[in-house]
Amino acid sequence: MSKLSKIEIITDMSKFSSLKAALSKAGIGGMTVLQVLGCGIEKGTREYEVDEAYEMELLPKEQINLVVETARVPEIIELIKQELYTGHIGDGKIFHYPIDNAIRVRTGDEGSEAI
Amino acid sequence: MEQEKKLGLHNVISVAVGLVIATSCLVSLGQGSGTIGVVFIYAMIIACLLNMITVATISELNALMPNTTGGLAQYTLAGLGPFPTLISMVGGYLLCNVLSTGVEASIFAYAIGDVVHLPIPNYTYTLIASAILLTANLKGIDMFAKIQDLVAYLMVGSMIVLGIIGALGLGTGTMVDQPAVMTTDFPTIVSMTAVAFWLFIGAEYVIPISKEVRNAKRNVPLGMFIGLGLICVVQSILVFGFHNYTPWDDLANAPAPHLLYGMNLLGMPGKIWMTLVAALAFISTQNSTINGLAAICQGMAKMNMMPQFFAKTNRNKVPFIGVWIITIAILIFAYVSSDSSDAISFFILVGSVFWMISYIIAHIDVIVLRRRLPKAPRSFKVPGGILLPIIGILGTAYMVLNISTDPAEKYAIWGWTGGTFLILAVYSFFWIRYKMRMPVFKPVPLEKVMAMENDMFYVIRKRQGMWR
Question: Does the predicted model carry a pTM greater than 0.90?
Answer without folding.
Answer: no
